[in-house]
Fold these 2 entries.
Entry 1:
Amino acid sequence: MRLTTLCERYDERLRTEAFAEVDASANGLQIGPEEGEIEHVAFAVDAALETIERAAEAGADVLAVHHGLSWGGGFERITGCTHDRIAALIENDVALYVSHLPLDAHPELGNAAGVADLLGLDACEPFGSLGDETIGLRGKAPTAFEGEGLCDRLASLDTGGREPRLLDFGPEEIEDVAIVTGSGADWLGEAAETGADALVTGEGKQQVYYEAREAGVTVVLGGHYATETFGVRSLRSLADDWGLETTWIDAPTGL
């Protein structure tokens, strides 16, 4: 398959262009020859030196990730870690495809969709407003959770040995659950305003403790890495369906 074909298929499914005004990430093909031919795609959450080197060792032609290398308008200087990562990609002839917010948001392939499936939520609808787009989901639990039970449902995530954290400030019975993966604590206000019982996200800032307590909303912090493995796994499944060889690279941060 041509590299451009792979990128175009992903971009079309994920509505990449729709997020151009709200996402600092340079989504799509960040590094690589547009006319290259590919047979093997590796998938990871982060474009780190470790994952790049492991993709090269696996013989991959492309590394597809959620967190890429180019943010906020591109590279000013290619030095330090950025230099080492780009050099590893070029020296090993590995292209880099990135999908950040489009892969958070997708209602079937995305990170929030994966968490919603894990929790068994029904009647999911868009949540997490960002400009004209949304980057999360909100759904109903068919059987109400207690706070500990909701937290326990995330224990199967690959957290790198770190337990999910629970801020149990919501109602005793949790039925309405909002999800924004990764660093999604900024959407606690929207969860409270729209009547959600709980917000599930990856990591939290210091102020989320008091904001959650004062708003009466339970917050579960499942880990940034752990809540954002679902999307790239979905991209891998698509590549499998398209007849490409694939490799999953697991590199949990515990954060």
Entry 2:
Amino acid sequence: MSRPRPVSDQQKNEARRAEIVALVRQRGFVTIGALAQQFGVTVQTIRRDINSLSDEGRVARYHGGAGLPSSVENIDYSMRRVMNLAEKERIARLVAAHVPAHSSLFINIGTTTEAVARALVDHEDLHVITNNLNVAHLLANKTSFRIVVTGGSVRNRDGGLVGQAACDTIGKFRVDIGIIGISGIDADGTLLDYDYDEVRAAQTILANARQVFLVTDHTKFSRRPLVRLGAITDVSALFTDQPPPPGIRALLATHGIAIHVATQ
């Protein structure tokens, strides 16, 4: 009776990578640490797997893990809430330090903007207009705040309010600072997102705020969603957790746009 052929290292690697792809499709995002523990290999091995799969277009490489490579579908909200949480909280504290008391604000949809809302609870006398039910809930108990929630259709997956009614409400105000998040930034500075209705609301914020703070962690510089929101040169300041790519830094410097990096 013939013996079965031993499995080669290449076959083991490909089998593991196929399982990683399956897990990403199932969960939306998986961390390097969890994958290393599940497969009983080193984190360096998992990083090589993710790099290889990213080069093949089978997953998208993010800081700390791998996610869906889609340009038309965002990672699930429950996963985005915990992804890069420490970085988002650092960004949020830095943004809050640049928001004076007695200011009027727009705050839009997104997990980073929600972190900013949490960082603002110790402020006094803010007037906040938002199309994010989570932001409204976070700030509602602050008695010196005045909160306006836009109209619109509720997106059950993340508490966002979208549609013409949301844009109409935003358009009735002229505020000091608009605080917006984004899902991706292209190499030429184009701001990109997944949902056309969400983009329309963000564009209305851009048009009706005296200053616009763009809040984004560094992973957004490697993501390429489908819908164009505008250009990074449309904002007043960028708040992020790592220095942006050289091309973006040069673009912002040329247009006199401030970069604020929330280092550890």
